[in-house]
Write a structure and sequence with these properties.
Number of helices: 5
Helix content: 55-70%
Shape: elongated
Structural class: alpha+beta
Radius of gyration: 41 Å
Distance between the termini: 97 Å
Order of helices and strands: HHHHEEEEEEEEEEEEH
Number of strands: 12
Strand content: 15-25%
Largest sheet: 10 strands, antiparallel
Amino acid sequence: MRRCYLFVVLLVLACASQANTERTKDDLNQVQEQLKNTNKTFKEQQALLDKTEKDLKKADLAIAESSKKLKQLKFDVELNLTEQATLKDKIKSLEIDKKNQQSALAAQLRSAFMTGNHDYGKLLLSQDQVQNVERTLNYYQYLNNARIKELEKLKTTLIELENSRQLLAQNQTQLEELLTTQQQQQEKLVVAKKEQKANYQSLKNTLQKTQSQLVYLKQNEQVLKQTLEQLNQELIESEVKLVGLQKQKGKLDWPSHGKLAHRFGQKKHGSLRWKGVLMNGKEGAPVKTIADGQVLFADWLKGFGWVIVIDHGKGFMSLYGHSQALLKEVGDKVRAGEQIALVGQSGGQSNPSLYFEIRHKGRAVNPIKWCRRI
């Protein structure tokens, strides 16, 4: 009887163990399936995020090109208007010269008429008053020479006047063409900005869905860090000689006008903190370098948009991000206060702003301690 009971117990335990094993296998299969689905979803979301970033970069590039062309067109229009004003002044001056020359010519003709209707034939045949004849001949010669001179001057003035009018007409045509191109470029800029806004919203929605904003920001910061480390290494190798910023601490001008939206050291997201400052600005406003230097980097960076980095020597660098367009290229030397970019919202910014950093030997320092009080 006892043996029979023990057998039953062992049989039950074996069945239970087998059932637990089967249940564990089912649970494991479910977990593996969930992991597989999660991994698939993550890859899909990452692919969507990558596509959104590419679209954003494309829109930022279109805005940068349109902005630079518009800036050049505005300069060309202003130059054309200045040339037109100069030509109009010249035409006005030539018109006055023409009137004066016509008046002088008319006065000479009146003088000749008042002298009398003498001709050379009568004067030569006359035997009386030889001295008077000689005097009159000299007068006629002088009068004719003066008249020819005035006619030549008038002819030259009329030619100059006609040339100036033709140039003015050409300039007017060029101006109309420039304004038409400017309008077309402005329309392209508006379209690019709409695309940028849509891409920014898409990026924002994607990040909210994936709940990976912290990961995204960490990736952006890592990209920036690696870029700056590479630039710092190139600096050491090239031994660019500049005076640095040490003597200008607290005296530097800010690169742009605007309130600080975020300050150095403030909490950014999770454990991340701001390594520079974010300044609100007006779209298209000038971004100026804080000191003399040389352009080390000028390109689009993930999360920061159009970025330009200036080397100031002695291990000092300044960085300007989220630009609408960059106006300098790598290798260009710049002076303090020189315009290097335009304020924008590239790299996924909701509003026009400027991201500004100062670094010394690769370490970010507080720009507020280096620039004058706003």
